[in-house]
Amino acid sequence: MTTAADEHVLLRTEGRAGYITLNRPKALNALTHDMVRALDEALALWEKDPAVETVVIAGAGDRGLCAGGDIRAIHDDARTGGTASADFWRDEYRLNALIAHYPKPYVALMDGIVMGGGVGVSAHGSVRVVTERSRVAMPETGIGFVPDVGGTYLLALAPGGLGTHLALTGAAVGAADALLCGLADHFVPSGRLPALAAELAHAPVHDVLARHVRPAPPGLLDGQRAWIDPCYAAGSVEEIVARLRARDEPAAQEAAATLLAKSPTSLKVTLTALRRARELGPLERVLEQEYRVSCAALSSPDLVEGIRAQVVDKDRDPKWSPARLADVEAEDVARFFTPVPGRELRLAGPGAPQEVPW
């Protein structure tokens, strides 16, 4: 019997490669729990298969690799106080850790839209390919959520204030800026991706890349670091906004306006999560923090309201609570990082990303 996972995650092997296609093109290949389980099972199987030397992941359709998780399902679960989202994140974050330490080349074709959970199944891979069509983002603050799937780990490692800028604004970046921020490794023109993928069935990754990698077109962020770095070095979101508004650059003014439209609680929790991620060490510790934060967000009014405004009703007019940065207290932020017995994620170290007991 064919299951939803069979339809939504297409698997095949050819020559020396195993190919994964995320196959929900009408939903921009958004991840469901069944899809996460299917990915985990395929990677575990291919890890032990000596015939599979390289894994390649791509998205069906021509719009992108993956737009993230199924946030409408998260909205419905949060409204009813369910546990489906927490269960989904538990398996998704385990998958992110597995990908990060996969012992075989894991080639992610990050063409088109790559956001949220799409970053989680690609940017932790060992070979990350972007194209001129790539739009890479962690847009969670716009729906009352916080970057997850190891996003706070990746963005905390970006140069200067770039990661903080992307995490707080949710801005999508193109190929050159994804490379600059450490979210990707190689630029390949989109028209060459079919040949690149096909050749991986017959040749080692480094040989194939050498034939297809090209210089990326110029990006934007490197030329904006004169205002990004000093503004986002501030100790609070309020001070970041004040510094941005004090700059003369139009892009800085736009960034300030963008921040003021996001969930104030999400902004403050995101900044704290990023700063803490820098001190936590390996990816596993950061994923554990993200799980705690994500589960806490389920009981925050901003998550339901943000998804309602952006995805359900699409009025693009969320009513955040609290509505102002000044009204988000320190204890409101601390709640997201407080351990909850019986609802914690613990991951083993590199090479063994399965869950371990407390």
From TrEMBL:
Residue ranges annotated for the Enoyl-CoA hydratase/isomerase domain, each copy included: 18-337
EC assignment: 3.1.2.4
CDD domains, per the entry: crotonase-like
Coiled-coil ranges per UniProt: none
Gene3D superfamilies for the chain: 2-enoyl-CoA Hydratase, Chain A, domain 1
One Pfam family per UniProt: ECH_2
Protein name: 3-hydroxyisobutyryl-CoA hydrolase
